[in-house]
Automatic annotation (TrEMBL):
Role this protein plays: Pyrophosphatase that catalyzes the hydrolysis of nucleoside triphosphates to their monophosphate derivatives, with a high preference for the non-canonical purine nucleotides XTP (xanthosine triphosphate), dITP (deoxyinosine triphosphate) and ITP. Seems to function as a house-cleaning enzyme that removes non-canonical purine nucleotides from the nucleotide pool, thus preventing their incorporation into DNA/RNA and avoiding chromosomal lesions.
InterPro entries the UniProt entry points to: dITP/XTP_pyrophosphatase, ITPase-like_fam, RdgB/HAM1
Molecular function GO labels: dITP diphosphatase activity; ITP diphosphatase activity; metal ion binding; nucleotide binding; ribonucleoside triphosphate phosphatase activity; XTP diphosphatase activity
Name assigned to this protein: dITP/XTP pyrophosphatase
EC number: 3.6.1.66
Lineage of the species this protein comes from: Archaea, Methanobacteriati, Methanobacteriota, Thermococci, Thermococcales
Named cofactor requirement(s): Mg(2+)
Binding site residues for substrate: 7-12, 66, 139-142, 162, 167-168
Length: 184
């Protein structure tokens, strides 16, 4: 089976590929841009995007909308994560948290799969924001995020390690389990 992943982000594609490879599913990147609406939740953003794409893309596809939610910043950047990353970057988040004791944060991923109907799969990982960036793996905010139970950032992990515990890995697991049940 081949699965189209609509995204501009090669880091996400790499993670989905690594996840699905052992299951005999080939993931390929479909670079079609879609509107990301301003909404309160990642679910709303991904649902709107998937329905918009459904009218323009042939065949099944999935997309992934993710965000980093920082407790001391009342959930910011959250649904604004892509914009924040492009503007102030992870250094900007570190600056906003300078001197802050509460470093708690979580990542969340919402995968929307369209096969004529919409299916939503989510995953979350709790952790904390490091005081300085570490590591060169991964992408985005990975150098500043330390998942619970570890002392390394996501950027200091291999893709396989990150997939085992990450928001995206968890959403991909739900997605893969659903596919197993529904493609019999
Ligand atoms: P799309 O084309 O798939 O939308 P994007 O990079 O814009 O790619 P998102 O809107 O889902 O993706 O991501 C919001 C931001 O959060 C973006 O800057 C990402 O780099 C970052 N991000 C998403 N997942 C991440 C992860 O697993 N680790 C670190 N940063 C992540
Ligand atoms: Na995006």
């Amino acid at each position: 089976m081949r699965l189209a992943f609509v995204t501009s982000n090669p880091g996400k594609v790499e993670e989905a590929r690594k996840y699905f490879e052992p299951l005999g599913v080939e993931v390929y990147q479909l670079k079609v841009s879609y509107p990301e609406i301003q909404a309160d939740t990642l679910e709303e953003v991904s649902e709107y995007g998937a329905k918009w794409l459904a009218q323009r893309v042939d065949g099944p596809f999935f997309l992934d909308d993710s965000g980093l939610f920082v407790e001391a910043l009342k959930g910011f950047p959250g649904v604004y994560s892509a914009y924040v990353y492009k503007t102030i970057g992870y250094q900007g988040i570190l600056k906003l948290l300078h001197g802050e004791k509460n470093r708690r944060a979580y990542f969340k991923s919402v995968i929307a799969y369209w096969d004529g109907e919409l299916h939503i799969f989510t995953g979350r990982v709790d952790g904390k924001i490091a005081t300085e960036p570490r590591g060169s793996g991964g992408f985005g905010f990975d150098p500043i995020f330390i998942p619970e139970g570890f002392d390394r950032t996501f950027a200091e992990m291999t893709t396989e390690e990150k997939n085992r515990i990450s928001h995206r890995g968890r959403a991909l697991r739900e997605f893969a389990n659903w596919l197993k049940e529904n493609l019999k």
